[in-house]
Amino acid sequence: MDDFNKQSGNSGKTGQSGQSGQFGQSGQSSYGTPSGTGTAAATAAGTAARAKEQISEKATEVKEKVSEFGRKAADKIDDSRGSAAGALEQTASSLHSSGDKLSGVAHSAADKIQATADYVRRTDLKGMSEDVQELVKRYPSQALAAAAVLGFLVARGLRSND
What we know:
By secondary structure, the protein is mainly α. The chain has helices at about 5-10, 35-100, 105-120, 125-140, 140-160. Helix 2 packs antiparallel against helix 3 (about 105-120) and helix 4 crosses helix 5 (about 140-160). The longest helix has about 60 residues, at about 35-100. The chain is elongated and about 90 Å long.
């Protein structure tokens, strides 16, 4: 080995560490391709694999958090069913008591509210969701109108809170 190869760490053989020493093909491997290409491709592939793995982990984490949020929301809705049913029953009772002064329309409305209170009390969130889906399938135009009215009321309520 000559002094240059000793100082630079080259053995003078082709294909090792991307330098060919004595043969004048500096920067190329014994296959005639730039030696950095394979290393760069491997590095890029490794980086892409790590990025894909991190994205997959984050997606799983987000999915778990959304599922947990959904479960908590469903639990809160189920917990509030009792108080909603109680409020409906109180409204029905109030209509029945004041209905003596009013017509049969007030009694009919009170009966409907009482039936709604009973339904809310005995039906869980999943059952309500299934019932709503069935109603939308049977009465699509009425469901669309109800959704529009509900959206209007929610928007108005949100606007009044600001």
